[in-house]
Amino acid sequence: MKRFTLPLLAAAFLVGCGPSRMPTDYAGSTSGSGTGGATDLNLLGSGATGAAAQAARDGVIPPEAILVTVQFDFDQYTVSAAERAKLDAAAGKAKATKLLIVGYTDQFGTEEYNLGLSDKRAQSVRDYLVKLGCNPADSEVLGLGEQQADKSAAGRQSGAKDRKAVVVDANYFTRGGAAAPSAPAAGKAAPAAGKAAPAKAPVSGPAPGPVTAL
Q1: pTM for this entry
Q2: When comparing pLDDT for 187 and 122, which is higher?
Q3: Which of 26, 47, 96, 100 makes a 20 to 30 Å CA pair with 112?
Q4: What is the rounded distance in angstroms from the CA atom of residue 115 to the CA atom of residue 112?
Q5: Residue 26 half-sphere exposure, CB side, CA atoms within 13 Å?
Q6: pLDDT tens digit sequence for 133-181
């Protein structure tokens, strides 16, 4: 009996030391298919620079600066066939400008996990655009995690709109596309036409005659 007991115990030990499977629901997890490890929250959105990146962090990217929005399934960063078709259609414009690809997630899961997942989503979109001919030197990625997610979403379906990456035309901000603050008016405003002071009427009377020498 002892001859069989030791091999069985050794096999059980090896199985116990094997890699654990990632749960379907990644709430509370800091590693898995989306990140490959925990992410330092101090690095949140710190990769990209410039006006486009600042607008993304502030949540004020103008709609006209967005070339395409790519949606993702829950806990996924692979670009689906339907979303690849959207990138195919936008490739012409993407090749002609500098790009910022910003990744986002829903609120489900830890901040560390979602930060890493959003970065993976942005990188996945960038990789596909490079395959379409975009210059990798003309693009940056920025993962914002759940920073701008709808916190009132009650379930996975309601958070679907936050599982995305947006491809931004970074040159939009350098060629004056973003609205500039209006300059204050210089000096005092001119009085309204109705308030103008009436002009003085000329004094009526006979015109003076020539002076006669005495």
Answers
A1: 0.65
A2: 122
A3: 100
A4: 5
A5: 27
A6: 999 999 999 999 999 999 887 878 889 999 999 999 999 998 876 544 3
CA distance 106 to 109: 8
CA atoms of 62 and 54, how far apart (whole Å): 12
Structural contact between residues 165 and 103, judged by C-beta atoms closer than 8 angstroms: yes
Contact by Cβ (8 Å): 114, 75: no
| Residue 180 φ then ψ, to 5° | -95, 150
Instruction: State the Cα–Cα distance between residues 34 and 210, nearest whole angstrom.
Output: 106
Element spanning 84, H or E: helix 81-95
E strands, 26-113, in order: 66-71, 99-103
**pLDDT tens digit sequence for 28-61:** 333 334 444 444 545 545 567 899 999 999 999 9
Q: Which of 64, 75, 139, 144 is nearest to 103 (CA)?
A: 144
Q: How confident is the model at residue 9 (pLDDT cuts 50, 70, 90)?
A: very low
User: Cα separation of 88 and 79, whole Å?
Assistant: 12
Q: How far apart are CA 83 and CA 49, in angstroms?
A: 27
Domains by residue range for the chain, with CATH: 50-177 (3.30.1330.60)
DSSP character at residue 172: G
Beta carbons of 29 and 36 less than 8 angstroms apart: no
